[in-house]
């Protein structure tokens, strides 16, 4: 009896496709880009007073709109809670304010802005604090403009102009108008305090801390259900922790000198269509685990098939 040869190329192709799918599932769970409000500020001292004039602009790092959710120490012009940040490249929010301090050292020169971005499969919130640039003394225009006395022109008798034949003007080629390039926006200033970001996806809540200080930071993150996690970040480094997504999940940060409110998980819109009965769809790590189990089962099936063919074993129902 002639036994047909088993093609291992087809088996390898099936395994390769399975691993490719597994890699795609893992790629979906990759961390998001750094969403942040782009803050720029300047200030000057009003001559002869303890008042300081601040000018702020707040832009957007992303190509979608964002909502301002916090402003500290307080609102300034258009920069306020509930304001909408235009997509990147659009007009920024602007605001001016006056702050009073006994001296320059006691002056609070910072502005903290928190914004929220909503995408179909994720919700990202980030808070950033920036220090305004010192421009010295304010340049104030004179309060009263100089007065110039009127001058009476001398009376001149009318003169009859001589009659001249009309002159045909020479043809002048059209002048191409000079295009002025748009002004370069100011460079976003670096944050002066640690930057906190939290991202809600369909299957997890990711809390990220960027340490912009010169000292190590340690934060304890306690969920309303489950065990607490400690996030320790070295100077200049960035660290993150993840919690499984669940309706009603809140995580409270605590640590030395830390100011923060409980972080609430928000389910993105697209998650509702991916699962039934109010449960979250299987994505990210869960989908990767299922894909891995499928690969193992597929491999076991191929091995049994090869052994059965070689030993002439017949499977019956």
Distance between the termini: 24 Å
Q: Could you give a short account of the major beta sheet?
A: 7 strands, antiparallel
* Derived structural class: alpha+beta
| Backbone shape | globular
Helix content: 10-25%
Discrete helix count:
2
Mean pLDDT: 74
Return the string of H and E elements: HEEEEEEEEEEEEEEEH
Please provide the count of β strands: 15
Strand content: 25-35%
Report the C-alpha radius of gyration, rounded.
34 Å
Low-confidence stretches: 1-33, 179-185, 274-287, 311-317
Describe the structure.
With 317 residues, the protein is an alpha+beta fold. Among the domains are: 8-25 and 285-311; 37-117 and 131-139, no CATH class; 194-278, Immunoglobulin-like. Helix content is 15%, strand content 32%. The protein is built from two helices and 15 strands. The protein has helices at residues 8-28, 285-311; strands spanning 37-45, 51-60, 66-72, 84-85, 93-100, 110-119, 122-131, 133-137, 195-201, 204-210, 217-223, 229-233, 238-244, 250-254, 263-264. The strands form three sheets. It has a seven-stranded antiparallel β-sheet, with no helix packed on it. It has a four-stranded mixed β-sheet with strand order 5-2-1-8, with no helix packed on it. A four-stranded antiparallel β-sheet has the order 12-11-14-15, with no helix packed on it. The longest helix is centred in the last third of the chain and has 27 residues, at 285-311. The radius of gyration is 34 Å and the shape is globular. The two termini are 24 Å apart. Residues 1-33, 179-185, 274-287 and 311-317 have low confidence and may be disordered.
């Amino acid at each position: 009896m002639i036994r047909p040869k088993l093609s291992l190329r087809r088996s390898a192709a099936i395994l390769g496709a399975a691993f490719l799918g597994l890699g795609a599932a893992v790629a979906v769970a990759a961390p998001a880009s750094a969403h942040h409000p782009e803050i720029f500020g300047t200030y000057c001292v009003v001559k002869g007073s303890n008042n300081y004039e601040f000018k702020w602009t707040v832009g957007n790092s992303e190509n979608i709109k964002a909502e301002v959710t916090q402003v500290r120490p307080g609102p300034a012009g258009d920069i306020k809670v509930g304001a909408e940040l235009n997509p990147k490249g659009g007009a920024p929010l602007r605001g001016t304010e006056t702050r009073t301090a006994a001296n320059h050292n006691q002056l609070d020169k910072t502005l903290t802005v928190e914004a929220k971005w909503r995408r179909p499969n994720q919700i990202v919130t980030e808070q950033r604090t920036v220090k305004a640039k010192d421009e010295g003394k304010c340049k104030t225009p004179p309060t009263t403009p100089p007065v110039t006395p009127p001058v009476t022109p001398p009376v001149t008798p009318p003169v009859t102009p001589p009659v001249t034949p009309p002159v045909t003007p020479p043809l002048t080629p059209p002048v191409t108008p000079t295009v002025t390039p748009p002004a370069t926006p100011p460079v976003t200033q670096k944050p002066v305090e640690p930057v906190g970001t939290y991202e809600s996806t369909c299957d997890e809540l990711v809390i990220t801390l960027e340490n912009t200080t010169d000292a190590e930071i340690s934060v304890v993150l306690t969920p309303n259900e489950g065990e607490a996690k400690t996030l320790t970040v070295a100077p200049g480094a960035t660290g993150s922790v993840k919690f499984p997504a669940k309706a009603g999940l809140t995580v409270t940060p605590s640590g030395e000198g830390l100011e923060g409110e409980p972080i609430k998980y928000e389910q993105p819109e697209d998650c509702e269509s991916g699962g039934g009965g109010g449960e979250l769809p299987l994505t990210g790590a869960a989908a990767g685990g299922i894909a891995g189990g499928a690969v193992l089962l597929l491999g076991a099936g191929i091995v049994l098939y090869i052994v059965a063919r070689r030993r002439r074993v017949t499977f019956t129902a």
